[in-house]
Structure prediction request, 139 residues.
Amino acid sequence: MSQTVTKKLMLFFPKCECEKPIIYHLVKDHNLIVNVFRAKVTPEEEGYLALDVTGTEEDIQKGMDFVKTFNVSINTTGKGITVDEDHCTHCGHCITHCPTGALHIADMATREVIFTESKCIECMGCIRVCPYNACASAF
Ligand code: SF4
Ligand code: SF4
Prediction:
């Protein structure tokens, strides 16, 4: 029997997909145990679900393939912080306010500011200081 694993995921729903019974199908059709720990889902606006899914790697993959058919974006780190590439000017102001180095300059030649999501602890520091509102939180 395949080993079960638990993965933390963040699902972002476009407006039109919020009422679809996606979680129901993940449980019923893909044998997954789902633990929703943060959610904002309303018919009028974009929404998100932060959840743990437990199952075999194969069932989780099939479940995620199913979710993607609804035009739902999946963030596998389960983080709610986003940095909008279109608004970021790479001014660097956020870097000294980011306690973990999640926002950093990888190449001093280009001085491009990179967001490494896996290092983010969701302290919201960058959201408070970004002059261009490039950083946002789903929560
Ligand atoms: S402060 Fe905002 S605009 Fe400046 S580098 Fe950071 S995310 Fe980009
Ligand atoms: S939320 Fe905090 S840890 Fe995450 S990128 Fe922003 S400042 Fe860094």
User: Anything to note?
Assistant: The first helix runs from residue 22 to 30. Strands lie at 4-13, 33-40, 47-56, 73-75, 81-83, 103-105, 113-115, 135-137. The chain has a mean pLDDT of 88. The chain has two domains: 4-75, 81-137.
